[in-house]
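Feature request disguised as a bug: please show the residue count (226) next to Coenzyme A biosynthesis bifunctional protein CoaBC in the output. Example input:
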Amino acid sequence: QLLAPIQQDLAGQHWVITAGPTMEAIDPVRYISNHSSGKMGYALAAAAQARGASVTLVSGPTQLDAPQGVKRIEIKSAEDMLSACREAMVKPADVFIGAAAVADFRMKEVASQKMKKTGDSDEMQLTLVKNPDVIATLSQENTAKCMVGFAAETQDVIAYAKSKLERKGLDLIIANDVSRTDIGFNNDENQVTVLSKDQQWTPPKESKSALAIELVELITQYQSTK
Ligand code: CTP
Ligand code: CA
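Example output, currently without the count:
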């Protein structure tokens, strides 16, 4: 045998992970979205699966293949992401990780026909409304024993992440400096700081798949102290 088998110590656990961007329709041919590649969420799903967890990956549109052995549910909008997660967690999950870059707003009304640029105005206004906060809603509904979020920030990373941890009722938050071009969004490497209410960890900058293995370990250790 070439590789030592990874311990199946998460057997019997159900992990639900969101990944990728959401895509919010403007009209039949246009949408609002973001640059999330989905790599971090997919790497976390693969890492938890490798340790024996049963993993449901609720994913927005990405270029990635579902990791082997992972149940992927493909959605487009934030609202669909929330319903898919609720459905996956009818029986409470052990761990929920919100790695998706959920669009904060969607169209107040999606145009049923392609919008035309007729008229003299050089300006155009779209009316947007706030999307549901997927992770905050699920946290309130107590659908997972351990809730883990991400915080994408461009400044005051730790302070903003801490306030998100509290506001959304999370156990852990993984803070990401998205102003750096060498890590994070659409990149193969990532560097993060993980925060709980009273502790913090900073794993080295490394590939998203190596980091995912460390994050799954950290979450597993955190679970056992809860
Ligand atoms: N999130 C979510 N639903 C939303 C927005 C965000 O579930 N509608 C989750 C993300 O998946 C992530 C966490 O909340 O785990 C933080 O996302 P982020 O965009 O950093 O925070 P927001 O609360 O949207 O605040 P802002 O974008 O204004 O910084
Ligand atoms: Ca946001």
